[in-house]
Amino acid sequence: MADQKSSATKSDIFSKAFNFTKADEVKEMGLYPYFKPLEATDGTVVEIEGRKVIMAGSNNYLGLTNDQRTIKAAQEALTKYGTGCTGSRYLNGTLDSHLELEEKLADFMGKEGCVLFSTGYQTNEGAIQTIADRKDIIFSDKDNHACIVMGTLAANAKTVRYQHNDMDHLRKLLERADPDAGKIIVTDGVFSMSGTLAKVPELVKLAKEFNARLYLDDAHAVGVIGKGGRGSASVFDLTDEVDLISGTFSKSFASLGGFLVGDRPVIEYIRHKSPAHIFSASMPPANVATVLKALEILQEEPWRLERLEEIANYMRKELRGLGFNVWSSQSPIIPVVIGEMMDCFKFWKDLFEEGVYTNAVVPPAVPQGQSLLRTSYMASHTDEHLDQILEGFRKVGLKHGIIDRNGHSNIS
Ligand code: PMP
User: Which residues form the Aminotransferase class I/classII large domain (predicted)?
Assistant: First the structure.
């Protein structure tokens, strides 16, 4: 490898890979926080490098990944249908359980139609690419998830990006746009790094005023917030006013896959036209069965959403009280701003030593100097878990001089 690196010429397409050394440098310093293998997990406590740590960085919001009922449902589906569908939904890969799930999700979300995709990523990438075509314009929030960005790049449409959650900027862009162009506004419902909500009421108004359609990526919202877990539009009682809502099964629904709901003709168009749907194998049986069971549990056990909200409010208040900057989080995603990238990695490592697992998020995912530890919470966290997480942050925060003993932040 070393030989290849030294002999790689600038024109070798692989030269960028041979010259990519950053990860190795951080590994050599013993500070690399990524790709850590979990050796065991019960959902809230995981084993990494032989050490038990509290998981404070999972999207398993309802705590259902290790629930005996979801496990049993998945096992039964394995026995009934086998391990995979070995084909796309279009052809041999549709099970009766896929149809049952689409029907139940459409019903749950209060929309006419639903189409499943094999991941949440493919849902947004595939749907946006398909619905926006030549002569159309996509208005996309600058902080939108990568799969939305990739969907806009794959689409033949023009894309304009508005400043994050900045409704004045969006209005200006809409005013400037060709009134005859087809328009769609696309935004995360809950932003995945900051935990902030989209301004759904303002977005609905702008969409109406400028004859645009509105698309919410509710990956971190369906099964997490809103009326009965129906997502960001339902927080404002505006589900009927939003044209398309997508969600994922890799978070609250304890599985893998994604879905899109909306008016039936639009959903049927996407089902028949989206390359990500047509040319990719369908969700495996066990994944589908897990989601069906999780959807049932979500509706039968409202305490999970209530507990999740209570935990998120508690952690935001306590972390702020310790002096940490948690941005404008409005959900169970609570970022803790550390500052420079290497400082963030050092903080991550010390927190891990204290028995707390978080996710280090560094540029370009966040602005320079705003590297953060993204924490997220689950209905299954106990009060003891939460207090251990807080104690870890307090200790390491003081050690690193990020906070002081009076609950003040030492960073700007
Ligand atoms: N949208 C958002 C906002 C996300 O945060 C994610 C994943 N973190 C996705 C879509 C993709 O979902 P999945 O991981 O289930 O493919």
Answer: 53-391
